[in-house]
Amino acid sequence: MTSLSLYGGLPASALPDGSVLVELGDFYGGECRKLLLSLAVPGIATLGLATIADLRLTCFATQTLTTYTADVPVTVNVVPGDEAAGRVPDPAVRAERLFQDIQDAKRQASDALIEGDVERAIELLDSVASTAKEALSWAPNRNELAREILELEIYKSQSAEDANRISKRMRSSSHLRNRKRGRPDE
Q1: Can you give the three-state secondary structure of the chain, one letter per residue?
Q2: Which pTM was predicted?
Q3: Separation between Cα atoms, residue 25 and residue 35, nearest integer Å
Q4: What is the pLDDT of residues 11-29, one digit of tens each?
Q5: Distance between CA 97 and CA 117 in Å, rounded?
Q6: Is the dihedral of CA 73, 77, 12, 149 positive or negative?
Q7: How does pLDDT run across 76-107, given as a tens digit for each residue?
Q8: Strands 37-40 and 12-14: what pairing?
Q9: In CA terms, which of 35, 61, 105, 150 is 20 to 30 Å from 126?
Q10: Which tens digits make up the pLDDT trace of 130-155?
């Protein structure tokens, strides 16, 4: 594997052995979280299943003072080029990536507003809102996406009026959405 991109603004550190430590934060009983990674996969000559990464999930149970670890291989099915060309990306994964792109755009637009670049902030929000609108036809999370689009439109319309307040609201929204991502009360 040559590169890794982590979505959601989670704290991550590169370790000396080449691995990456990602801090997922506290979990609650019955909770499910989403973690979106993008891995650059080098060309693989042999067809069939190939392990491209290993995820090691470690948690600490405070009640019992016990550490639990689960190792999960990340595999791909290497197929001939003509067969790969006919594959369709998973809509749930595409929608999650779009959700994360929206949160990133909010953070970038917030930074632009802090720097006094209202025009750049509006361009960022407009671009991601346009992409999100196109996704309404295929995304499995249409209601969530529609709420995000509405929020983006509000930020765009109010950015010039009160840049500092809107910058803070966007950053807060992005942080809160990613912090609660995948939790049952979502």
Answers
A1: CCEEEECCCCCEEECCCCCEEECCCCCCCCCCCCCCEEEECCCCCCCEEEEEEEEEEEEEECCCCEEEEEEEEEEEEECCHHHHHCCCCCHHHHHHHHHHHHHHHHHHHHHHHHCCCHHHHHHHHHHHHHHHHHHCCCCCCHHHHHHHHHHHHHHHHHCCCCHHHHHHHHHHHHHHHHHCCCCCCC
A2: 0.81
A3: 12
A4: 888 889 888 888 887 777 7
A5: 26
A6: negative
A7: 888 888 888 888 889 999 999 999 999 999 99
A8: unpaired
A9: 35
A10: 999 999 999 998 999 999 999 999 99
Give the pair of three-digit tokens for residue 50.
Answer: 């190939």
Look at residue 157 and tell me whether its pLDDT is greater than 80. yes
CB atoms within 10 A of CB 68: 10
Provide the token pair at 120: 């750049």
The residue written with tokens 């991502």 in the block is: 181
